[in-house]
Predict the structure of AB hydrolase-1 domain-containing protein.
Amino acid sequence: MAVQRGGPMARILLIHGAWGNGSSWTGVVPLLAAQGHQVEAFSLPGHGRNDTPSGDIGQPEYVAAVEARLLAGPPALLVGHSMGGMVVAQVAARQPAQVSAAVFVAALLPRDGESLLDLVQRQDAPGVRDFVRPGPVRGTTLLDPGAAGVLFPDATPQAAAAAMAVLSPQPNRGQTDKAVVGPGFAAVPKAYVFCTEDRVVTHPLQRAMVAATPCEAAFTLDCGHVPMLTRPKALAGILLGLAA
């Protein structure tokens, strides 16, 4: 887990996506902390470098872990990337008073009862589907190196290879469990960061989700699925504006 403090300003919790871990935010954390914010980028259960992969982990376990972290400090800006948006929506609905705003970065933005697979199956693009391989234990998957071209189309080959090398096994339940998004979510300010060249959560799907769950603020980056890697300064600038 990366925790950096630059002073007594906003608290920002960064939630990674599928196959990711806390290191997904490495390019953004120091940019936020340099402006005085308390920044926490941690790995969801089963995703950490020292975690044992498990097929018994899913959305309830993710939500419990993030909720516990959220309640351990003052209210926070809760930021989710990709699958992390599933977790952010559920935690924000459970603890609206603890969330200054919920931010979705090329993220799944579910309504109650929707799973990640429910959402991504609505887009025409295959995403990373063709690159999913069985993981180290039952109920988990890994991504074939060929997924780099879909995940990081705008990264250098070296940066894409390095990012692929640190991905984690993904518990299947994290993608199939239905989100439980209670009525408290309506009270939470929301922002969405569109990524127009995204091949994983496509721009049309992003826009459709925001149409179904309106967000008070919206931003657009002309990049692929992982702006933390390819547009860290631009993404950090957006988050700094929301944290102000």
